[in-house]
Amino acid sequence: MTTQRLAFVASPTDNSQGALDELSASYGTCDPHDADVIVALGGDGFMLETLHAFMDRGIPVYGMNRGSVGFLMNEFHADNLPERIEKSVETKLNPLRMMATTESGEITEAIAINEVALFRETRQTAKIRIAIDDVVRIDELICDGVLVATPAGSTAYNLSAHGPIVPIDAKVLALTPISAFRPRRWRGALLPLGTTVDLTVLEPDKRPVSAVADFTEVRDVVGVRIFEDPDRSVRVLFDAEHNLEERILKEQFSY
User: Is 44 a catalytic residue?
Assistant: First the structure.
């Protein structure tokens, strides 16, 4: 990759803003829409925001960690940044599309790079019916929620909910319950990438549920359809020695 124009964007934290000033002074910066590469300074949350913001522009994003976990980010070093980007490895990620229907009949669409998750809104557990490609697989899941994660998102909230870590090129989605009460022994499923998942909320008046696609939340949903969007993608750059495939593999052996 030949890098000519870099655009630096940063989260509002002091660490990120300090890095923004330092790198802009060293390398110059341009409008993100005119850049060859966007350098995102922050944590994983800000990286997701940046990927969403420029998804339709097709501009690769190179993240540098100024947050806490930084799973989607590279280490922060101010030196030799153009050379690091030149040698970086590109990973293309296809997001999930969520179509959420509320009690009023309104349909909201949103994109998720990590996961789409349903959560109970009150003290009472949610009751959710799960259908895979129009075939009901679980009539009634009693739980705090349920999520569908991409391979890239499998190490995020999905892992915290005891879902499986999915290799980036595995072409599967993780369907993971959140604190399932019944069926108690169900631990989730791995689904082919082209699968359509329909989640129907049972007793929505008594047991309201919200749906979240990355950071887009829809309250009081009655049904949510989730599927991969093959027509959209994001381009993420990683240092060759710490590419995303290696990070996901390494995560499976951490303890």
Answer: yes
Where along the chain do the CATH 3.40.50.10330 domains lie?
6-93+233-251
**Class of 96-228 in CATH:** mainly beta
Structurally, at CATH architecture level, domain 6-93+233-251 sits in 3-Layer(aba) Sandwich (3.40)
Backbone angles phi, psi at 64, to 5 degrees: -130, 125
Could you give the CA distance from residue 165 to residue 148 in angstroms, rounded to a whole number? 12
The helix (H) or strand (E) run that includes residue 110 is: strand 107-112
- Cα–Cα separations (whole angstroms), residue 110 to 9, 64, 250: 23, 26, 31
Question: C-alpha distances in angstroms, 68 versus 150, 156, 196?
Answer: 22, 13, 34
68 — pLDDT class (breaks 50, 70, 90):
confident
Rounded Cα gap, residues 86 and 69, in angstroms: 24
Q: Give dist(CA 170, CA 252) in Å, integer.
A: 14
How is the beta sheet containing 89-93 ordered, strand by strand? Answer: 6-10, 37-42, 61-65, 234-238, 89-93
Strand order in the sheet with 115-120: 189-192, 172-178, 145-149, 115-120, 209-213, 216-218
Distance from CA of residue 47 to its chain's centroid? Answer: 10
Kindly report, residue by residue over 154-184, the tens digit of the pLDDT.
Answer: 989 999 999 999 988 889 999 999 999 999 8
Place of tokens 């739980």: 143
Q: Which of 44, 198, 205, 239 is catalytic?
A: 44
